[in-house]
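Appendix B: complex inputs.
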Amino acid sequence: MRSFTYERAKTAADAAKTVAETQGAKFIAGGTNLLDLMKIEVETPTHLVDVQDLGFDAIEETPEGGLRIGALVSNTALSAHPAVRRDYAVLTRAIQAGASGQLRNKATTGGNLLQRTRCAYFYDTNMPCNKRKPGDGCAALGGFSRQLGVIGISDACIATYPGDMAVALRVLDAVVETVKPDGTARAIPIADFHRLWGDTPQTETVLEPGELITAVVLPEPLGGQHFYQKVRDRRSYAFALVSVAAVIQADGTGRVAFGGVAPKPWRVEAADALLQQGASAVVAEAFADARPTEQNKFKIPLAERALAGILADARG
Amino acid sequence: MEFNAPATENLFDRAKLVGKSTPRIDGPLKVSGAAPYAAERHDVVAGQAYGWIVGAAIAKGRIRSMELGDARRAPGVVAIVAATEHEPVGTSPYNHAPLFGGRDIAHYHQAIAVVVAETFEQARAAASLIRTQYDAADGVHDLARVKSAAKIGTGFSGESMKDTLGDFDGAFGGAAVKIDATYTTPDEAHAMMEPFATIAAWEGDKLTVWTSNQMINWGKRALASILGIEADNVRVDSPYVGGGFGGKLFIRADAVMAALGAKAAKRPVKIAMQRPLMFNNSTHRPATIQRVRLGAGSDGRITAIAHECWSANITGEDGEHGTLQTPKLYTGANRLTASYVSQIDLPEGNAMRAPGEAPGHMALEVAMDELAEQAGIDPVELRILNDAHGVVPGDPETKISDRHLARCLKEGAERFGWSERKAQPGQARNGRWLTGMGVAAGYRAGPTAKSAARVSLSADGKLKVETDMTDIGTGSYTIIAQTAAETMGLPLDSVTVELGDSNFPVSSGSGGQWGAASSTAGVYAACVNLRRMIGEKLGFDGDAADFQGGLATLDGQGWQITEAGALSADGEMTYGDFKSDYDVGTYAAHFAEVRVDAFTGEVHITRMLAVCDAGRILNPLSARSQVIGGMVMAAGATLMEDLHVDKRFGFFANHDLAGYEVPVHADIPHQECIFLDTLDPIVSPMKAKGVGELGICGPNAAVANAVYNATGVRVREYPITVDKYLDRLPALA
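Resulting structure:
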């Protein structure tokens, strides 16, 4: 870990301004991912702006009938909230499928959106990694890629966004609210929040330097049956091989997003439209452009079988 | 004391403490955090600085240069010992890959420097400022590629690992029922909870290491040899060990680098190895490729049995001998067992819990399941039908000491509800779950080694036991206290036990499931000597007297043993040649029930049962913990554990506990463990054998067989993860 300076921000605007204007500065909230990465010098911030005093810790109903979730609401609190459990069960199930109880107590809603990939080569600073060091090359291509991405990836990087919560947020069409260093706010649909890697895998979201997440807004409830199936090598405390978030209506229509397969929660609206035709049609459409490796090509049939299980359960 | 003839009836056959379930005497210390592990021993020596090990960034080659200036100037840095400025350390019989090898790199994350600083954070930060340039060399990192160059391996005692009996080819060729299958097991990590950790301090020429180690005397001698100093000048102290599983049988880089760092810093140095270094810096269980051929008559009687195993190691010598159990388990007149080893450029392979047997069962006991199906015989019945009697099937000159495998299988089948199992696979379904049951037999040797102890009786009737035996979470403290209390006729709470210090008499240490039987026999020998001393002091025959409740009685006379005053006796148990006529083994029948998600292929174990035949069980409570711990590890080996070799760069890519997955609580169902009430008179006066490795010999195959029974899909490439068989699962309705 490199030496760094630290401050606790008083206002969101100040925090955003400081991070924007200070070379090498980063926000810290729960720190469940950032501190690990700092210890192994994958992250080497020179200055940390702690946002934990800024409030943003409430879950409130919106005039539109949805919920506004403060960026600092913990994973535990969010997943346990009665309205979330009742109206957005896919979100509760996704959060509780992730990490451990201790980590969920500490992890925040905003921070969880920003967790970084779990590619083994990203974590090993002896290995080339374009995400860690642009232009360095990618050791995962042709290497240990079983956990890595099959779609939306590039020749520069085949890492995945590893989280669960965002996969559910994608099915719910959540909106990420931010404040920029100039004090203006913006609302970013979750679909647009995470970037595909392209040639710049070091840039993982559309956030501008210093832009701070303040809340995540859920639209009004979708109804239907909510599912989150996470397939992994052990039953807890493991990242998904494939996860499937789905909301299925009584007529068999609905929405589906896949985790563990791409740089972002993977949802293709044209695939949603095929849900009544069954898992095979949906996955064929959603993964039409997949470019898996020999080690991770199983993820596509696995996604299909996991979705088939959900649809069978939905039929009862 | 020499154990030179089979045990006859003795005081342990009337035991009041030995053989009774006894909570760990060190338990309160451990659960309250008061038992200090190596890195927590802040009070043993003042002025401890912190060391951070730098690991090599390549798998093979040579260091061209190391830039140390920035690190030396970094805040808090006290000293740096770097490969470019230091001679390679020596070797020992216990370490094959160099622990600090100068400029030549033998494997990824081999130690190339230690940075010593005032704080842990300063040492870590400074270490990252060292800039190392390498000339990388090509290496071979793929077992399948080096397999053809394999040579016959050598066993633990230097023996050849190839044996034949009768005419295998002829018998197999003519067999009515045949199985010929190849199985693979991956490299596996010990992944113990406590990392390697050492505090090292020099006092002149004398070195003390407070460390975490299973084999104190090996460690003392190895450290002396590696550092080029006299063994008498080395003290090793390791009273508590947070898991070893064979990974801590040997001195590792933490101890060597702490000693070198302390010398350079001129003050004590503490190192706890960082988790990401553990997997490539240290040893692992090597991967295997195993071919098993079984030939049987249509009645299921085995006529031909061949088991061949290929593994590879950095030395090209000692490998993972998956064939070890095969000569012992089943009859069959025509046999071939061979374990071949190739040279490979990976970190050193070495002992991990039941080395050889653990992966060996994953092949042999699945082949038996395949044979049972083909012969149309129940898998439990097939094993009973081919059970061995009297002599070792693969070595008919050797007698079996005591064996009740068939009883394990029968009692287990009854207890587990085996009759509910559907012989036809893929037939049992409950909602989205396919369910199945599997069985496997288990064999693990029950060795003993000489072991010494000192027992001291104080004037107030308290007894202290000292031996360099270790408790690696196994329960040694408690069984040693039980043995001493039993032999001296004292209550358990009058006995204190001190372990793990090389100043104490040399014990067997902990490994190869020999520790329990051996160390308690050594304590018994010391207590027998103490009884004689008490008798001499008070004027009676200590061998003939009965010791109960602090009183020695003989021929109607009684003596308070405290009347003898404070006394101390050393003793050692050694073993006579008669034992070489026997194979002393431990046996088990393992059962598993699984459910498999018909959609995703995920496997959930729902029940596990082990029925164990291991002689007298000294403490059923801690023995059960040993067995169920082995079953957990077996579940991991079967379903998830896999060090993924990057065959281009030559290292284990998933080198942390997020990437190397071991079972979590949610993976482990109800586990049951039953001990048969057996006695083995060949093993020791205690008639007791260890169980620390029996628990990982067989449950792996039982789970694999249950997955087959549930799905009808046979996966012969471990671990059984969904990617290996998704395409063969029954089609979705």
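The radius of gyration of chain A is 19 Å.
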